[in-house]
Design goal:
five-stranded parallel β-sheet; 400 residues; homodimer; 15 strands; Rossmann fold; DNA-binding
DNA sequence: AGCCGTTTTGAAAGCGCTTTCATTTTTGCA
DNA sequence: TGCAAAAATGAAAGCGCTTTCAAAACGGCT
């Protein structure tokens, strides 16, 4: 075991700009005659571990708080105090510290800070699918709310499966998040109740007794959406339901039924098809309705994505929306107002929900209390719904 | 300054379940007669700092690696070795350690690990807008690729503005990410070249000499999209361009022009309108084309979202797609196949791009080399394009 | 039994920052 | 001018983990 000096001067593929900026560094190696590429590996590993960084063209050690302290001629404690404003520091020294920070391009190591303070300044967010436009809006809300705070969100997806959701939670907790925001999902409430003993947990879109929950009234929303159709004269209204394993889907179905009841319309199970909240299932739902000869003049879908799918199915058959069949969605995704025809839908304020959830979490973290704004659904009437043309007349589409 | 004992037994708003699980703990306080709520705050703060956690109904210290070591009757080093598999450990002790971990419900503190190892096991991803369906796909790809690895992505958005993008980069670097994936954007290349001296950086959707880039051929894609229209007999093809500050938008415009040239069609600047990649701008673009009496039988939009907007504008005017005007987009967002009419578009493999970017980053982190799969665009012909009905005839829509 | 080369282990020194506690300096006032 | 109180500072002990280095245990020989 000797201390050897490794000269690095070659150029590995993806790092052409490294050429010329590496210089001879000391490394501990097991033997002489190290092949060049392993020498590079050592160099690279050191860099990665932040033992060194290439800066201004030459290799130097990463700058730490003590470096700043030395440079400014004060103790590390003082530097810490200046940075965090946790105690008064004489203006003179403060200036010196700030100048040193500037000069050395110092950036605090947030991991070290986290370790010392026992918190990570990170908030875990569990969504079902990060690429879904619905969660996209919520995440954007979270991101915005956290923007000016020292906290940063980190995401993990549950893919609408309780086990994966649980895994996502585990990952986030393992990453030492300071708090959790759980969006929808079907993970057992007990698990969350267990978690909340350790850190603040806010639930969005579900109601779990004992936890701060932020939800909309799905029953009411679905009721309004369906009522809108009834008011337009529709009586045979199909419902494309969400997966009945999800509470919100159940509630929306319930709202649909209540509206029917209020409108004096008998509930017909044959007009309800269960989907999975994704576009294809909306398409399939309409196909299956048509296939079994169901008669309807309007569709209320439990979310916009399924409404999109339904619309395609209708389009394929030459059934026009809204002239022949009216269509109502739920969510009001950003793209729904640019759908053709622009979709009438029950607006769910995704962005605001994300925002409020984040604000609430922040408040809990700081021990403040916070009453989130009321988040209610709102019917947005666009162009996918129309008065029933000839009330009482049978649906205008042929059954195959 | 006395050591006092604080009894906590009341119930602050959002934590009903805390009632009964708090018990008397020791805390250091400045004075006697502490009001109950500040007592709670202390308790809460301690919990947050993981000094304690409520577990099994009673307060206990958070379990650390040394606890496991003690429980298993070995040294911390050995526990570490068992957990990380970094060295051989006698089967007997290994078992003991594993049992102790099990028994104590031990979870390693990833922050401490990160600090000690000089890395965070975190990969920073800069997108333009987290809620955009296009980035959603890429993020999903990144998430998937990182799933079985110890790494986890963290996101920050640049909102299509160089300054915010730079801020996003700063945030991520400040969070000690081990590597960066930068998606599109317009942050100066030099900044990234500076960053790559510190950590691996992979760029998606842009080409910056000196950096590993993962991009598609925008020129070729746009060329194919436009050519498709030409092959259908269209000669007056409008283009809704992306923001010309973005390289990809420029390239797509170029592809459009090349296709025209190859088709022997003169380029008409009056048929090009610049948008901002969002739906409203697509709508505006068509409005403005119509307003100034431009004649066209087809539209090639630089992305799907603008195509959506264009489609609405056409729909409003009673101009039918594809009977009156053909429409081609770019991206192939998940929702485009459920658009009405299903959108013909140039597919950009968002998910794969995210995936490959993440794989590449992993390879760089591990010092391996990796050649990403070739990511090319592909024209997806759906139902928004059709043969020009009466070639040579003027556009079928009235100019207001 | 004694010796040597492996394997296994544990002690201890960090990683970069915070925070307590004691010490030094400054200030206000007699 | 001197003294007590207040303000400012620094030394040092962690935070929970890794990793080096040296010591201990082991196994196979002679």
């Amino acid at each position: 075991m000797h201390k050897l000096t490794v000269g690095v001067g070659f150029q590995p593929a993806p790092y052409p700009q490294m050429l010329g900026s590496c210089r001879t560094i000391g490394g501990r190696l097991g033997e002489k005659g190290i092949p060049l590429d392993s020498a590079f590996k050592i160099c690279f590993t050191l860099m990665q571990q932040r033992k060194f960084s290439l800066f201004g063209g030459k290799l130097r050690e990463a700058v730490t708080l003590s470096d700043v302290a030395r440079e400014a001629g004060v103790s590390p404690s003082t530097v810490s105090r200046v940075i965090n404003g946790t105690a008064r520091v004489k203006p003179g020294k403060r200036e010196a510290v700030l100048r040193a920070i500037e000069r050395l391009h110092y950036h605090p190591n947030i991991l070290a800070k986290g370790l010392a303070q026992g918190r990570s300044l990170t908030i875990g967010v569990v969504t079902q699918e990060i690429s879904s436009p619905y969660y996209g809006e919520m995440l954007k809300g979270v991101e915005q709310a956290l923007e000016k705070t020292p906290y940063h969100p980190i995401f993990a997806s549950g893919h609408w499966r309780a086990d994966q959701e649980e895994a996502a939670l585990k990952v986030l907790v393992g990453r030492q998040v300071d708090a959790l925001v759980v969006m929808d999902g079907s993970v057992p409430g007990e698990l969350l109740l267990e978690l909340v003993k350790t850190m603040p947990v806010v639930v969005v879109g579900r109601n779990i007794p004992g936890l701060p929950c932020l939800g909309i009234d799905n029953v009411q929303g679905a009721l309004e959406g369906t009522r809108h159709l009834i008011e337009l004269g529709h009586r045979r209204i199909a419902h494309i339901a969400g997966p009945q394993s999800h509470p919100d889907a159940i509630e929306r179905l319930q709202g649909y039924r209540e509206a029917l009841q209020q409108g004096g319309i008998a509930f017909d199970p044959a007009l309800v098809v269960e989907g999975d909240y994704l576009e294809p299932s909306g398409l399939m739902a309409v196909e299956s309705l048509l296939a079994r000869g169901a008669l309807f003049t309007a569709i209320f879908a439990a979310n916009d994505q399924m409404a999109y799918g339904a619309n395609v199915a209708l389009y394929r058959r030459g059934i026009r929306v809204p002239q022949d069949v009216s269509l109502v969605g739920f969510d009001d995704l950003p793209s729904s107002s640019y759908f053709t025809p622009p979709l009438t839908t029950v607006r769910q304020p995704g962005l605001e929900m994300g925002w409020e959830a984040a604000r609430l979490v922040l408040a809990l973290l700081e021990g403040r209390s916070y009453t989130p704004r009321n988040l209610s659904t709102r019917l947005v009437v666009r162009e996918s719904t129309a008065l029933l043309r000839s009330p009482g007349v049978r649906v205008p589409h042929a059954v195959p």
